[in-house]
Specification:
The chain has 119 residues and is mainly β. The protein contains one helix and eight strands. Helix content is 3%, strand content 58%. This is N-acetylglutamate synthase.
């Protein structure tokens, strides 16, 4: 099993459609005793939250977000946690909107520790 998500920041590797997460979105993850939650914002998302569980390298969560235009959206996501060659974590996600039509896949990767890259 890959290490804990607790305290890690993840960023999307690509932009999604307008009104969704994109490369400017930052996810601040927490994990404790099989529970996972995160706060996120950036790009078209003014504020977002996710809550769920983790079993081995699979996370299962629901998300809800408020967009800058005042609209809201919610859905379900199942990421698979993998480790990159440089030791950072990657979440390969399969998601489905529950508040609107649509589903897809996306990838977020752990943001490099800026303190390490300045040494």
């Amino acid at each position: 099993m890959a290490r804990s998500l607790d305290g890690l920041v993840f960023v999307p590797v690509a932009d999604q459609a307008p009104g969704q997460v994109g490369r400017q979105t930052r996810f601040d993850y927490h994990e404790q005793d099989g529970r996972v939650w995160a706060e996120y914002c950036g790009g078209d998302v003014a504020r977002g939250h996710l809550v769920g569980t983790r079993a081995d390298d699979t996370v299962d969560f629901r998300y809800v977000q408020l967009r800058h235009d005042g609209s809201t959206a919610s859905g379900h996501c199942v990421p698979h946690v993998t480790e990159l060659p440089d030791g950072r974590l990657r979440l390969e996600e399969t998601w489905t909107w529950e508040s609107q039509e649509g589903s897809g896949t996306s990838v977020v990767e752990q943001q490099p520790d800026m303190r390490e890259s300045t040494r």
